[in-house]
Amino acid sequence: MSFHHRTALDYVEDTSPGTGMLPPRAWYATSDSTSLSLNGSWRFRLSPTADAEDDSFTEEGYDASDWTEVAVPGHWGLQGHGSPIYTNHLYPFPVDPPHVPTENPTGDHLRVFDLPQDWPGLTEGGAVLRFDGVESCARVWLNGTVLGDFKGSRLPHEFAVGHLLKSVGNVLAVRVHQWSAGSYLEDQDQWWLPGIFRDVTLLHRPTGCVLDFFVHASYDHRSGTGTLRVDSDVDGRVTVADLAIDVKTGEAVTVPVEPWSAETPRLYDGVLVTEGERVPLLIGFRTVELSDGLMKVNGTPILLKGVNRHEWHPHKGRALDLATMREDVLLMKRHNINAVRTSHYPPHPAFLDLCDELGLWVVDECDLETHGFTEQGWRDNPVDDDHWTPALLDRAARLVERDKNHPSVIVWSLGNEAGTGRGLTAMAEWIHERDSTRLIHYEGDLNCRDTDLYARMYADHAEVERIGRGLDGGPRRRRRLPFILCEYAHAMGNGPGGLAAYQRLFERYERLQGGFVWEWIDHGIAHPDLGYAYGGDFGEELHDGNFVCDGLLFPDRQPSPGLVEYKKVIEPVSITGDGTSGTVRVSNKYDFVDLSGLAFSWSYRVEGEAVGSGTLSVPPLAPGESADVHLPEPPPGAPAGEAHWTVCAGLADDTRWAPQGHVVAWGQLTVSGRRAPYVATTARPVSGDAVITLGPGTFDAGTGSLRAVGGVAVSDLRLDVWRATTDNDDGAAWQTDLRYGPLWRRLGLHRVQHRLDAVEIGEDALTVRTRVAPAAREVALSTVYRWTSDGDRLRLTVSVTPRGDWRVPLPRLGIRLGLTAADRVQWFGGGPGEAYPDTRMAAVVDRWQSTVDRMQTPYVRPQENGARIDVRWAELGGLRIEGDPAFFLTARRWTTEQLDAAAHRTDLVPGNSVWVNLDHAQHGIGSQSCGPGPLPQYHLRAEPAEFALVFSSTPVTG
Ligand code: GAL
């Protein structure tokens, strides 16, 4: 008996990168040589273990007619076979590297193909079979001959196959295993989704064709010249018609050029010609360097306004189509984002083509994360074990060789959350040696032993400020390096709060070169019953719930309020002023371009109604310059009332990423403030049988609670301090700071009782005294409702006095009430979207219209949402509400308690009432789901407070 009987499967648990592949090389989408896409429908068979089936399916003539089919590129788990698993950092299998479980879902893929008519003769040159991404390990056969096996899911692998090809009836067989030794290196926070999820292509390789090549295109900002040298494994010529360049490969040439930057993505068309092939080149001239402790491009320090992007599509997972990739880049550009970190693996190569074309700085990250080893104090971490070093070096090489010709890539990242170790150092050394023209990033290298940037994730504002001021200490090498937040502002659920305060630090301290919000898109999976599924929805035994939904985009790519906020916070032009000085201050915050690409306009609005508008001439300020630009006189005859200037900077012309007029930046200047609503105290409360009346108000005689305003029925009006805790309120389990969501719940703020102490009918007021407190606690809010009226309108003054020892802030402070019906909503105040105290930069004061349904923000896991800030007045359901001072308006067809209890949007069922919250204040949002909570100035302290609301009825508008 043999103890080692799985020889044929040894590759699965082998730490080596694989066998049989060609060396890694530059990736290019097109050339004049023929290729054949093997994407499409493949025959498919899923087995529960790696060795459940023999490999006879790889032979010609095998009958697979009883197999099912899957789409390639695709993940079988999203096509009805098996199911996805979500874990953040836990390995969903026992940790015993390099071993994997016996239960190892294995997908056999089969495709029979003929060569197209125009395929050159079988003896003319060779052919290469390329896999752009297979998770996590594959073995490949062509026409019955094994080509090899490989790991490295998001990296390309090529095999020479010319000698095996036939004109017709080629049988390509691929066996894909969900788990392999490679899984230990791919512990990124995302769904585990095996499959052939990127393209499969057969490339004809003519005799004398291009092999690998390296485009070196630097820019000297002092002379305005670019130097081009294309190193090529196969000699040839390089031409760039626009620059009259025609040189041999390996030969350098220097000519005047326009440089490439994310703001000016100037690409020159070139061609690399060898004896057997012509490869089009898109050349961007730019130089990345570290100097004066800063990261500079073309001599200028840059400020990264970035996002972390995972590849995600709610139906297709990481099998993205080109249109979706383009949509991502367009959405980024349209939201003022200028940088992307390809967390946490190299993206589909076409994405980088788009970054080159449209202009984004890229931190290109290797497919490496071993985060799960943190559970065992990083014991046996592959990055510190020489057995794994060849695999790590292979991954580094496949990243760099594939992507080295992209001007957009300015930084290589070794990977994410893999601890520290010799393997990482080896990767960094190899990369530095191979490509000295870019910087190296790796956040886990806290002392910057191997890296060129000091990077951190989720550091709070105070620490970032210390780093900015150079007061953070650390080793000498690190102190001389620029700083980036490779992740910050965790965009999970409602939030992130605190973006503006970070941006102020980035703009203030030059060492701080910006950061990347975590993350771009929610990885929700479209689900027939749940809307979007997250961790646990597929019955996983280990999972991390909705931590996988923490993006600035909802899964369907609709921008969340967080993205709208980010766009405003990072706008490249600042437009400020006090509204009465006659001028507006305009500052250019771009790194490279002047303002000539923007057209400015103004509008003058009184009470949210446009009174005048026009264009504004702003000089073409250079980067860093500011000017006080004259505003016109306020339009003559403008009515009295609260007035604002709104100044917008829009694109002067169409660009490749947005049409003319697209708003890039705006500012709102207050001309005259608001007059608080005044209600004379002339009406008297009248006591009837069961009701008390006061002006338009009808109250319950026993409880003093409001029943109607004019003809509009109102129910359950009372103080409300509870909100459906957000992901950021709840915080992450590992958070050491106070997490208020759980504390609020422990205190019982979600189940406060309202004790009625007195109903007092006075001369000119109805006063209701209550004590609001949770069971089992001695803390309370003494709450007095005082109603007065002028006969038409009802004024409610709410006075709140905390009693007892309050040690937590309040979630919210306001009143809530129920209306029997409401649909259309209009208001004058902040809009159009939701805003909270520390997520309010994008709110424009104006008159807005919406509906109750559209006021809901569709967070994948339901939670508090939808507040409109600084609302002066609002009308809905026949009620008009004016605030003194302005209030937060929230309206929904379910109660806060129902919202709080829901796990998915589909749990929210409209009831018979519309619940309206009119909040005097809200606790800040922060980003404690994986970072700091709200800054202290946004804490809603339990302190004495008084606020008033004025109610009247309006003609019902629907
Ligand atoms: C970071 C990690 C990311 C993600 C994030 C939280 O630690 O690098 O991959 O897990 O936290 O969403």
UniProtKB/TrEMBL annotation:
PROSITE patterns: GLYCOSYL_HYDROL_F2_1, GLYCOSYL_HYDROL_F2_2. Residues 693-952 form the Beta galactosidase small chain/ domain. It comes from the Bacteria. Its EC number is 3.2.1.23. Keywords: Glycosidase, Hydrolase. GO terms for biological process: lactose catabolic process. GO terms for molecular function: beta-galactosidase activity; carbohydrate binding. It is an enzyme of class 3 (hydrolase). Coiled coil: none annotated. One of its GO terms (cellular component) is beta-galactosidase complex. It catalyses: Hydrolysis of terminal non-reducing beta-D-galactose residues in beta-D-galactosides. Belongs to the glycosyl hydrolase 2 family. This is Beta-galactosidase.
